[in-house]
Design a protein that fits this description.
The complex is a heterodimer of chains A (about 280) and B (about 260). By secondary structure, chain A is of the alpha/beta class. Chain A contains eight helices and eight strands. The chains are: A alpha/beta (about 280), B alpha/beta (about 260).
Chain lengths: ~280, ~260
């Protein structure tokens, strides 16, 4: 299997790498991997390279690419909102992969802000058949607070550590600007998920222990999103040991095992259809 | 559509087209060309944007540029555990020839940060570089390996990153996110960079308390330019923060423009 580099898009402003298995069955889904934050298309610690190559080996065509102004991609020159631009960029990516691998439906995979981008597109694009949200939207629930605070309140030694840490943080506080995207309201995300499921989109939410400042237990999926999360087309996993960007090779392999299993179960390469 | 964007061409090249490159063509016939040698590991990701900005700055000076990924890194073929120093040097020479061919020039200079700087210096003869700019190159391999080992070990107890402490076995055979082979570890520990036979500029932005190990490298002061802005290469809190430096881009662009 050889990867191919492309400059593509409505303004030929996007750069991406397509992994095209030697033979694909008709109607196999194409997998598109979106930028995690400002890291270029290879992903944190080359996660997206490992991911796409493993999926190629299973027979899935893939594209990892840089959204407008990230990595090696330039601006399209259009004046539009970031949301519209992301949807248009992903539409360009789907067109390219469709052209190269003859796939008509797509699975989007995104970590962190990439998950937000995937969510945005999955809300409106009819070509999306599935989405993998890695450390996507989450909210501190009552359950989160109980799990977070009760053990700390009962542990005297922690009080000392908390005090010391606060003092250190105060003394050596970072003056770095923080670039974050305001999350969508919980009710909106819940309704979005319901809408996606109504449209037949299969969802896979995999959250890590690296977002423990707002997510700390597998139970929290249900606490955040309600009954929609128990729908058969939704799969959830909480990889408590892993950090947010999967810095350890063992954690990356476990994540990729999860994604492979979910894809194989829901979008079999053999049948080329969603099951 | 932006003509500058169209002049940035992503492609695969080299043996069996295993190496990824991005060629920045100069608008006018290039008088010289610069090969950007990437660092290894997380430094490569941290420097990606800076390398792109530098390439675009050099192009405005009429200098053609090639950025590329060694085998086992970035978008090139191969696993991270397959990165090999000798092969990286061979890839550098192949990339330099690819640049000569695409830019239609014979005169190729090299720039590299950290291990990319070491790579550029070590490859001068093999890649026929006419000059090198090395930014905080790694000149003492043993100290570098020890530093990476220490940072990797410290990950086990990094409460900011992990909810639960990790076992030493979980972090073994890796450096800051990348699997490494025993042979690469040994190659880096044995790293010894000879004083190059070509004009060289060392750009220094290490913190004052960092050992320079420049003495063994035998350079004179005229070969060193210090940047006021220090670069926190080894700060674990900034492991995933991009390295950006306007003054570095200015210094390198100025030097490459003036390079005879």
């Amino acid at each position: 299997m050889q990867e191919q580099a492309f400059r593509f898009g409505r303004a030929r402003h996007l750069v991406g790498i397509a992994g095209l298995p030697p033979s694909t069955t008709p109607d196999v889904v194409g997998v598109i991997v979106l930028n995690a934050g400002l890291v270029h298309r290879i992903g944190p610690f080359r996660l997206h390279v490992e991911m796409t190559r493993r999926l190629n080996a299973l027979g899935y065509p893939t594209l990892r690419f840089d959204l407008s102004t990230i990595g090696d991609s330039a601006s399209s020159g259009e004046s539009q909102t970031r949301k519209k631009q992301i949807c248009a960029d992903v539409a360009d990516a789907m067109y390219l992969l469709g052209e190269q691998a003859a796939c008509k439906r797509f699975v989007l995979i995104g970590l962190c802000s990439g998950s937000q981008s995937a969510h945005m597109v999955a809300c409106t694009d009819a070509n999306v058949a599935g989405a993998v949200f890695l450390d996507g939207y989450a909210y501190r629930t009552l359950g989160y607070r109980v799990r977070y605070y009760v053990p700390r309140l009962l542990n005297g030694r922690r009080w000392l550590r908390v005090f010391t840490r606060r003092r250190k943080a105060h003394q050596g506080g970072s003056s770095e600007p923080a670039f974050t995207v305001a999350p969508l309201p919980q009710e909106v995300v819940r309704a979005d998920f319901a809408g996606m499921i109504d449209r037949g989109i299969k969802l896979c939410l995999i959250y890590s222990g690296g977002i423990s400042q707002y997510f700390n237990h597998a139970r929290q999926f249900r606490e955040c999103f309600g009954r929609v999360i128990t729908h058969p087309d939704v799969s959830t996993s909480f990889l408590k040991e892993a950090d947010h960007t999967y810095i350890l090779t063992g954690d990356r392999n476990r994540l990729l095992d999860n994604i492979e299993r979910w894809l194989s179960h829901n979008f079999s390469v053999m049948s080329g259809t969603s099951s | 559509m932006n003509a500058r964007v169209e002049a940035e061409l992503p492609f695969y090249f080299g043996p069996e087209r295993t190496l990824f490159g991005l060629f920045h063509a100069s608008g006018t016939p290039a008088r010289k060309a610069v090969l950007l040698c990437a660092p290894l590991g997380q430094d490569q990701i941290r420097c990606h944007r800076l390398y792109r900005q530098l390439a675009q700055a050099l192009v405005t000076e009429g200098i053609a540029v090639l950025r590329f990924d060694y085998y086992g890194t970035g978008d090139s073929a191969g696993d991270s555990a397959e990165v090999d120093w000798e092969r990286c040097m061979a890839d550098t020479a192949i990339a330099a020839d690819e640049l000569r061919k695409r830019a239609c020039v014979d005169r190729v200079l090299a720039f590299g940060a950290r291990l990319g700087g070491s790579m550029a210096l070590a490859s001068v003869a093999q890649a026929r570089f006419a000059g090198v700019v090395a930014w905080d190159p790694v000149l003492d391999g043993q100290a570098y390996v020890a530093q990476l080992d220490a940072m990797q070990s410290a990950l086990c107890a990094d409460g900011q990153r992990f909810m639960v402490p990790r076992k030493p076995a979980d972090v073994a055979a890796q450096w800051l996110g990348f699997a490494i082979s025993a042979s690469l570890r040994q190659q880096l520990a044995d790293l010894h960079i000879e004083r190059p036979s070509t004009p060289t500029l060392l750009i220094d932005s290490l913190s004052p308390d960092t050992p320079r190990h420049v003495n063994g490298f035998e350079v004179d002061a005229a070969m060193i330019k210090s940047l006021q802005q220090l670069t926190p290469w080894d700060d674990p809190r900034r492991l995933e923060v991009a390295v950006l430096s306007h003054s570095l881009i200015q210094a390198v662009t100025h030097h490459m423009r003036e390079a005879a």
